[in-house]
């Protein structure tokens, strides 16, 4: 045993291992070189170029990019009525989806975390998680089937003398809510599950009725998790353009504007693309104040 | 909190409705694949296996599936290597800019797909095209790997933080060199985290459509792109229905594997 170890000690591999062990900085640079080349140079580099190109313009005859610094694109962003309208609509959709998700998620999470029998709870969590693995496109397609003419929605509303909403803004909100709902249920479920029963008992001992306990104890403790979930529902909705293309009819959101500008006016598309990024960053900063990000 | 009987029943009903909202659309996709009709009208006039055999013979769907598998495997392999390297650097070393690295890793998945997509598209256009390399499967793999790194990183770094470095130190005290300690001690410790991360990365790549749209060359069609292109063609609707149903059924596999691996790592990292 000793002899083999000594023999190995002179082998080049063993010597390399020793060198690495004695030089943590060398080890670190070997670990980081490849990933940093990929992420910092390839990815951040591309992002930086895209951002800079937002300050370029295009020749309106040839659609060639003209590399002259100008803030025209950003000026157009705030002054063109269509752009302003679409930006506000997109933020409205993202907020609506977030509120809808929270409203639907809360009772589901409350049931799975505190009312269902403890032995069923892990299974219920799996039931919440499963749709996350189903294809994004298939889930949107499902809503295309439901909302199409003569589809399930029409069939269900027929007895009440109504018809489904069809494809449009409402359909887009419904489909987006469906897509991101599990991201809202899970954090709320976790928060409710970790809520100590003693706090609820204490509130009851002090004369708090369930409604009061809910308002003064449960809600404040769950709110950071709602905020954490909302980061997903909000930012994922804001950047989406595929769902709107599939069920949104003629509705346009920021993503669609970016998409439709890429071919003819890349600098404008880049400027439009910065809008969701800036809004998402602002939203993250706002949510950080609630302590939501530490629970992500 | 002692909830009243009515409140409990109301919550049960609301939760039941919530789960119905989650599962009815998926069930509908399954049922609709047996719909003999080309339209999606409900209820279907009958049930048939006809379209399943038609879909099985469909060249376009098969080719797209194959492209998706190749892209997924390529992206997963790159993400496993890069994600693990960063995880070891972040978990086992202290250095300037460590927090910034964790941030950069998340960025590709945090930013809207279309932003990442056009950024990579114009970068490939300016850097690769002069070299004579056009967009193709290779660029899809590069794009996918970029946003898959984070799931591998998350899984491995979480595992490394939970296992202290003292096991490796013990191995080294017993005479193992750096490589030997890695093979015998560290790798077995992170193996299941790598599996979970790899599984997630593959699932993420397999499902991706936005970045793919901007990085795929002409003629490269992944399965999501194929579905998207054929969704609005009435002629192809029945085949799309079957492919969608198959994807719903396939989503059970990662759930099962993730549960077997360790429920908490996989569940947490999907978020």
UniProtKB/TrEMBL annotation, chain A:
Keywords: Cell membrane, Membrane, Transmembrane, Transmembrane helix, Transport
Species for this entry: Streptomyces albiflavescens
InterPro entries reported in the protein's UniProt record: MetI-like (IPR000515), MetI-like_sf (IPR035906)
Source domain of life: Bacteria
Transmembrane segments: 30-56, 86-111, 123-146, 166-186, 217-238, 266-286
Keyword Membrane: yes
Primary location class: membrane
Lineage of producing organism: Bacteria, Bacillati, Actinomycetota, Actinomycetes, Kitasatosporales
Membrane topology category: Multi-pass membrane protein
Example of a GO cellular component annotation carried by this entry: plasma membrane
Pfam families for this protein: BPD_transp_1
Compartments where found: Cell membrane
GO biological process terms, semicolon-separated: transmembrane transport
The protein, known as: Spermidine/putrescine ABC transporter permease
CDD domains: TM_PBP2
Domain ABC transmembrane type-1: 87-287
Family: Belongs to the binding-protein-dependent transport system permease family. CysTW subfamily.
UniProtKB/TrEMBL annotation, chain B:
Subcellular location(s) of the protein: Cell membrane
Pfam families the UniProt entry points to: BPD_transp_1 (PF00528)
Transmembrane segments: 9-31, 71-91, 103-124, 136-158, 239-258
Claim: Transport is one of the keywords in the record: yes
Listed Gene3D superfamilies: MetI-like
Any single biological process term in GO: transmembrane transport
Keywords: Cell membrane, Membrane, Transmembrane, Transmembrane helix, Transport
InterPro entries assigned to the protein according to its UniProt record, in alphabetical order: Bact_Polyamine_Transport, MetI-like, MetI-like_sf
Main location as per UniProt: membrane
PANTHER family documented for this protein: PUTRESCINE TRANSPORT SYSTEM PERMEASE PROTEIN POTI (PTHR43848)
UniProt name for this protein: Spermidine/putrescine ABC transporter permease
Organism: Streptomyces albiflavescens
């Amino acid at each position: 045993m000793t002899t083999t170890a000594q023999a190995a000690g002179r082998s080049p591999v063993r010597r390399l291992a020793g060198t690495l062990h004695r030089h943590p900085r060398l080890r670190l640079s070997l670990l980081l070189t490849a990933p940093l080349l990929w992420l910092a140079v390839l990815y951040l580099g591309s992002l930086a170029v895209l951002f800079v190109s937002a300050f370029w313009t295009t020749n309106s005859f040839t659609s060639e990019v003209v590399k002259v610094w100008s803030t025209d694109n950003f000026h157009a962003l705030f002054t063109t009525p269509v752009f302003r309208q679409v930006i506000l609509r997109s933020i409205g959709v993202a907020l609506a989806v977030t509120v809808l998700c929270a409203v639907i998620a809360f009772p589901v999470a409350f049931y799975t975390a505190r009312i269902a029998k403890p032995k069923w709870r892990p299974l219920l969590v799996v039931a919440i998680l499963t749709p996350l693995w189903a294809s994004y496109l298939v889930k949107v397609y499902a809503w295309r089937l439901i909302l199409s003419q003569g589809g399930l929605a029409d069939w269900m509303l027929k007895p009440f003398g109504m018809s489904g909403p069809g494809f449009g803004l409402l359909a887009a909100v419904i489909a987006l809510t469906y897509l991101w709902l599990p991201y809202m249920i899970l954090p709320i479920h976790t928060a409710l599950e970790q809520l100590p029963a003693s706090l609820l008992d204490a509130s009851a001992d002090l004369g708090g009725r369930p409604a009061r306990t809910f308002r003064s104890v449960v809600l404040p403790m769950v709110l950071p998790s709602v905020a954490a979930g909302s980061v997903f529902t909000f930012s994922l909705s804001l950047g989406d353009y595929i769902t709107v293309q599939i069920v949104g009819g003629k509705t346009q959101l920021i993503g669609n504007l970016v998409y439709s500008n890429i071919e003819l006016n890349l600098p404008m598309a880049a400027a439009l693309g910065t809008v969701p990024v800036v809004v998402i960053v602002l939203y993250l900063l706002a949510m950080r104040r609630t302590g939501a990000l530490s629970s992500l | 909190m002692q909830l009243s009987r009515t409140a409990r029943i109301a919550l049960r009903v609301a939760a039941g409705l919530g789960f119905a909202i989650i599962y009815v659309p998926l069930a509908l996709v399954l049922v609709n694949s047996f719909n003999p009709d080309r339209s999606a009208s409900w209820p279907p006039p009958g049930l048939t296996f006809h379209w399943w055999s038609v879909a099985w013979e469909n060249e376009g769907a098969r080719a797209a599936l194959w492209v998706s598998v190749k892209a997924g495997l390529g992206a997963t392999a790159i993400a496993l290597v890069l994600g693990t390297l960063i995880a070891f650097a972040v978990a086992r070393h202290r250095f300037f800019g460590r927090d910034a690295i964790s941030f950069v890793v998340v960025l590709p998945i945090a930013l809207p797909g279309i932003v990442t997509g056009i950024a990579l598209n114009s970068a490939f256009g300016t850097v690769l095209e002069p070299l004579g390399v056009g967009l193709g499967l290779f660029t899809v793999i590069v794009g996918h790997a970029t946003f898959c790194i984070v799931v591998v990183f998350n899984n491995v770094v979480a595992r490394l933080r939970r296992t202290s470095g003292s096991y490796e130190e013990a191995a080294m005290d017993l005479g193992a060199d750096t490589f030997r300690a890695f093979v015998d001690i560290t790798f077995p410790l992170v193996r299941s985290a790598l599996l979970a991360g790899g599984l997630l990365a593959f699932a993420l790549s397999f499902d991706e459509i936005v970045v793919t749209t901007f990085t795929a060359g002409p003629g490269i069609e992944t399965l999501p792109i194929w579905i998207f292109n054929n969704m609005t063609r009435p002629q192809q609707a029945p085949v799309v229905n079957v492919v969608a149903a198959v994807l719903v059924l396939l989503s059970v596999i990662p759930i099962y594997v993730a549960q077997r691996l360790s429920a908490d790592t996989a569940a947490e990292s999907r978020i």
